[in-house]
Specification:
The protein is an alpha+beta fold. The protein has helices spanning about 1-10, 15-55, 65-70, 80-90, 120-125, 150-155, 190-195, 200-210, 230-235, 245-250, 250-290, 290-300, 305-340, 370-395, 400-405; strands at about 60, 90-105, 110-115, 130-135, 145-150, 165-170, 175-185, 195-200, 215-220, 245, 345, 350-355, 355-360, 360-365. Helix 1 packs across helix 13 (about 305-340) and helix 11 (about 250-290) packs parallel to helix 14 (about 370-395). The two termini are about 30 Å apart. About 40% of the residues are buried. The model has no long low-confidence stretch (mean pLDDT about 85).
């Protein structure tokens, strides 16, 4: 075998220009394929991380039919039961209460969704507390203080320290109204939070809405220890009492888009390998045409057809192996540049969003060893398969006719 590869290398060097052009094209394809895999994986994984770690969570628990009308009265019965299950499964959980009303600052008013949260649990479970544009997030003992969405702040001309007047319909039928100080303004996280969120301490929410401790949502996040389906399965025993939804069920359009993105990775790789195959096929066909008399002479001397096929295929293998190794090194270097500098897509039009969820506009890479291994194996296999046609064509040559070629 070493002799076979030595002969293959010598034959490839007969026409250095043609071999160099083909080798360059293969190296480019390998490098781009590795970088593409790494970028797509980063984008998909970051998208899922943003969805599950910012505010939505991997799984949400609601009272039956709550999501249909978001009624203040459709709350989760005995939320402590589900918090205990989450703790036993080592899944972070954050209970939330929601209500709707009017928010006013000076002469400006807007509809608002009020969030009643436990700040310490939100910080343990999610990262949206870190996404503060101005001011600071709620402290554990916050009193009469709120954090609001960026667009809502713009609509109300809100500043840090502004007095926000809340007017709501309380659970007991009375009109709830109170004055709060704006302590923080959120960066863009989601369209809903951006336009309407007024986030306050759970105690303040209970006083404003006379809610008597109602909890409307428990958001769960295992922080990638479990899949969303595995997290949901932990609560199967309680599935008849509440509605349990994974983030894929809550955001089906976004989940479908990410599934399509995964499929797109394989479609692009298929296109790349088709290009690789045609490149090698063209090179091997030209090499075979140039050496027709040589193959005819070999057959006249008794060389078996399988030997000629093996010689042609070994040339393709040597070419692809060199390209795969050099292309992998180039791909790793490209990924290093992407990790270091990234590709800023914000110039394409502000913050990146899908289905109302904001995403990091800087695209980087997430290179895995499997990307390099797959590229090397697939490129070599594709090149060898592409060389079979010219190899078989050379093996079937008539010695007499081949030796008459000029």
């Amino acid at each position: 075998m070493p002799l076979t590869f030595k002969i293959a290398t010598r034959n490839l060097l007969r026409n250095k220009k043609r071999t160099l052009i083909t080798l360059s094209a293969l190296i480019f394809n390998c490098a781009m394929l590795i970088a593409l895999f790494a970028m797509m994986r980063y984008w998909i994984e970051q998208s899922i991380t943003n969805i599950t770690s910012l505010a939505i969570g991997q799984v949400q628990i609601h009272a039956p039919e709550y999501r249909e009308d978001r009624s203040l009265y459709k709350s989760i019965e005995n939320p402590e039961e589900y918090l205990a299950i989450a703790k036993a499964a080592e899944v972070a959980a954050s209970p939330r209460a929601y209500g709707y009303g009017l928010a006013s600052i000076d002469t400006k008013s807007a509809g608002a969704q009020y969030w009643g949260i436990e700040p310490s649990k939100e910080r343990q479970t999610f990262r949206f507390a870190e996404y503060i544009l101005e001011g600071k997030f709620l402290s554990d003992n916050s009193k009469q203080e709120v954090v609001i969405g960026r667009k809502l702040a713009r609509s109300l001309n809100a500043k840090i320290g502004s007095e926000l007047i809340a007017v709501v319909q309380a659970a007991d039928g009375s009109m709830g109204n109170e004055i709060y100080r704006v302590g923080g303004i959120l960066q863009t996280i989601s369209e809903e939070m951006d336009r309407s969120a007024v986030i306050m301490h759970q105690n303040d929410f209970q006083e404003l809405f006379s809610s008597a401790g109602r909890i409307h949502e428990i958001a769960l996040n295992s922080k990638n220890k479990l899949t969303s389906t595995q997290v949901a399965d932990e609560f199967n025993v309680a599935a008849k009492k509440v509605e349990i939804k994974t983030w894929e069920q809550l955001l089906p359009t976004l989940a479908d888009m990410l599934r399509v993105s995964r499929s797109a990775m394989y479609v692009f790789s298929f296109i790349f390998f088709i290009a690789v195959g045609f490149g090698v096929l063209n090179t091997m066909l030209m090499a075979t045409h140039d050496r027709v008399r040589e193959y005819g002479m070999l057959k006249a001397l008794g060389t078996k057809p399988w030997r000629i096929i093996m010689d042609v295929c070994s040339e393709a293998f040597v070419l692809s192996a060199c390209a795969a190794i050099l292309g992998s090194l180039a791909g790793v270097f490209l990924c290093f540049l992407l990790d270091t500098y990234g590709i800023d897509l914000s110039s394409m039009g502000g913050s990146m969003r899908m289905s109302g969820i904001a995403f990091d506009p800087v695209l980087r890479s997430d290179l895995k060893p499997i990307d390099i291994i797959f590229t090397i194996i697939a490129t070599s296999a594709c090149c060898v398969l592409a060389s079979l046609f010219p190899a078989i064509k050379a093996a079937r040559l008539s010695p007499i006719k081949a030796m008459q070629k000029h």
